[in-house]
Every structure is written in C-alpha cells, then in structure tokens.
Amino acid sequence: QNECYSIAIDGPASSGKSTIAKEVSKILNMEYIDTGAMYRALTWKVLENNLDPKDKKLVLKLLETTNIDFKDGNIYLDGKVINDEIRLNYVSQSVSYIAIIPEVRQKMVELQQNMARCKNIVMDGRDIGTVVLTNAKYKFFLTATIEERALRRYKELNQNGDKEINLKVLEEDIRKRDKIDSNREADPLKQAEDAILIDTTEKSIKEVVDAIVLCVKGGNTVAL
Ligand code: CDP
Ligand code: CDP
C-alpha cells in the first residue's frame, strides 16, 4: 500500500490547476480529483434551493442531506452528474461564501482524504498541500497574473456560449474570490512550505504539464 502516492496542486482561481492536473493524471495514469467541483456542487444546490449562501445555519442543514462525490472525472450531487451547471458564473460568485464555513470544509476534507486513501491521485484545490494531503509526495502551487487569469476564464466562458461576460467584471470577481479564499480563517489558500511554485503567466499548458511530469519522474526542476 505504501507504493501509492499523491500529487497536490493548489493555486488561485483560473491559474490552470484543473486543466494541468487532469493532463498530468492521464500521463502518469493516476486518478484525478477536482475538489473545487465539490464546493461548487454544494453552492449550486444552495442556490437551486433559493437559500442565501451566507446563511450558515441553513447551508449546514442542507449539507446534512447532501451527498457529494467525484468519480471518473464527474461531479455527482445526490447521485446526479452536474458537471456543466457548477461552472456557471453565478455559482463562481457565491462559492467562496460556502467554502468559508468551517463545518463545510471539515466534511469536504474528510471526503477528499477518504477518496485519496490507497490510491495514486492528483488532487487540485486551495488547501490540498496544506491540509488535505499534507503527506503528498509532490506539491505544486500554480500562479499567474490576475489579468492573465481573468483573460483565460473570459475566453473559456465565451467559448461555452456565455456571451454576457464582461472581462473587467470577471477580473473583479476573481480578485474578490481570491481575497476571501486567502484570508479566511479555516484552511486559507496558501502555498505549502514544501510546494514548488510555478508561474504559468507566460507558459503554455504543455510547458507546465511537462515541467510537472519531469519533476515527478525525477528530472530536475531548475527550469521552473
Ligand atoms: O476553477 P476555479 O479556480 O475558478 O475554482 P475551483 O477550483 O472550482 O474552486 C471554487 C472555489 O471553491 C474556490 O474559489 C474556493 O472558494 C473553494 N475551494 C476551496 O475552498 N478549497 C478547495 N480545496 C477547492 C475549492
Ligand atoms: O482550475 P483553475 O481554475 O486553476 O484553471 P483552469 O480552469 O484549469 O484554467 C483556466 C483556463 O486557462 C482554461 O481555459 C485553460 O485552458 C487555460 N490555461 C491556459 O491558457 N494556459 C495555461 N498555462 C493553463 C490554463
């Protein structure tokens, strides 16, 4: 069993975590878990039920009867796949208020640790290297300038037909979310001391993937 190992990938919104983590997991034949999707799934359910994401009591009540799982690249909410719904911008705008609640985090962290047990896993999020998988064999922290990250998300939403999106508003949304995520009391977004920092601003997806795979396969990491 001690042959299993994990790779933790953290970083701010739209720094490329999920794209890169997915690709790395394919190349190294590991499982991939998107922890952000789990917080997004609960947020989507809260909004579907017309609840206020800041109403901790009601959110926790709803959580009691909520089942969240991430399997084979799909996010399941109460047994139903909701991959597309959770990416909508109104979900992004509320998710940090849900993720700030310590009891919500406690439950998600426990689920995530159970998912990773005895498996080769690539997991991405905000607190993977610092809280969820502190023993991960490899830890990476991805960053990019706020302008680049907003632009990436803008292109992505546009491609998915979300034409109402405004680049400046999106940049403000991301800035706000990063601020809440970095300053919250429970498990804030933070680079783990033993994580390798990769600034992806001017790097292609392939360059970042190659750098991580090389590092895991034992090559040097100086180029990062
Ligand atoms: O893809 P993007 O970077 O926009 O977000 P995400 O990874 O899907 O995460 C959405 C939100 O969930 C974050 O802004 C955090 O508030 C929360 N989150 C968290 O608190 N801890 C994690 N491990 C993953 C996500
Ligand atoms: O998971 P996270 O929010 O950190 O980012 P993502 O959803 O993986 O990436 C956001 C967008 O940036 C995607 O459309 C990626 O294709 C793109 N991207 C990029 O253009 N260059 C990179 N080096 C990494 C991601």
In quaternary terms, these chains amount to single chain
SSE string = EHEHHEEEHHEHEHHEH
The description of the largest β-sheet is: 5 strands, parallel
General form: globular
Which stretches are poorly predicted, pLDDT < 50 over at least 5 residues?
A: none
How many strands appear in the DSSP assignment?
8
The helicity comes to: 40-55%
Q: Any idea what the radius of gyration is?
A: 17 Å
Unique bound compounds:
cytidine-5'-diphosphate
Number of helices: 9
Beta strand %: 15-25%
Mean pLDDT: 94
Question: Which class do the helix and strand fractions yield?
Answer: alpha/beta
Terminal residue distance: 31 Å
The main sheet orders its strands as 2-6-1-7-8
Task: Give me some keywords for this one.
five-stranded parallel β-sheet, 9 helices, 8 strands, binds cytidine-5'-diphosphate, P-loop_NTPase, Cytidylate kinase
Structure overview:
The chain has nine helices and eight strands. The protein is globular and about 50 Å long. A five-stranded parallel beta sheet has the order 2-6-1-7-8, with helices on both faces. The two termini are 31 Å apart. α1 packs across α9 and α2 (35-48) crosses α4 (89-99). The model has no long low-confidence stretch (mean pLDDT 94). The protein is an alpha/beta fold and 224 residues long. Bound molecules: cytidine-5'-diphosphate (CDP) (2 copies). Residues 11, 13-19, 152-153, 156, 200, 203-205, 208 line the site of one cytidine-5'-diphosphate. One cytidine-5'-diphosphate is lined by residues 11, 13-19, 152-153, 156, 200, 203-205, 208.
